[in-house]
Design a protein that fits this description.
With 101 residues, the chain is of the alpha/beta class. The chain contains 2 helices and 6 strands. The chain has a 6-stranded mixed beta sheet with strand order 1-2-5-4-3-6, with helices on one face. The radius of gyration is 12 Å and the shape is globular.
C-alpha cells in the first residue's frame, strides 16, 4: 500500500486499501498504524466512518492520515473496529477506536 501526500507540506496523507477480507485489511491497518504513530506517538484516535468508507487518524480534530476502505461497504464497522483493535494490540500500540456515525 502506498501513502501519498495531498499537498507539498505533507499535511494530509491518503491511501486506498485493496483488501477483500478482514484478514487482508489487517495488513493495510498495520501500515496505517505504523505511519500514524511515526508522526503522532501518543494520544491517537482512529475514526471509522462507514458512510464514507474511511478510517482517519490521529484525532477527530486534526486528521493527517485517511485510509479509504471500500470493504467497509460490505462488512460491519464493528468488525473493522475489532480488526483494528487487534492490530493495535499485536503491535503493542495504544489508541482509541471510534465511530461509526
Amino acid at each position: 500500500m502506498h501513502w501519498e501526500s495531498t499537498d507539498n507540506f505533507g499535511n494530509l496523507s491518503v491511501a486506498t486499501s485493496a483488501a477483500t477480507s478482514l484478514e487482508e485489511l489487517s495488513v493495510d491497518l498495520q501500515s496505517m498504524v505504523d505511519v500514524v504513530f511515526a508522526r503522532t506517538p501518543e494520544g491517537v484516535t482512529f475514526s471509522v466512518d462507514k458512510s464514507y468508507q474511511e478510517i482517519a487518524a490521529p484525532s477527530d480534530q486534526q486528521v493527517t492520515h485517511v485510509l479509504t476502505v471500500p470493504l467497509l461497504a460490505s462488512v460491519s464497522a464493528e468488525d473493522v473496529q475489532s480488526t483494528l483493535r487487534e492490530v493495535l494490540a499485536n503491535m503493542g500500540q495504544n489508541a482509541t477506536v471510534q465511530g461509526t456515525w
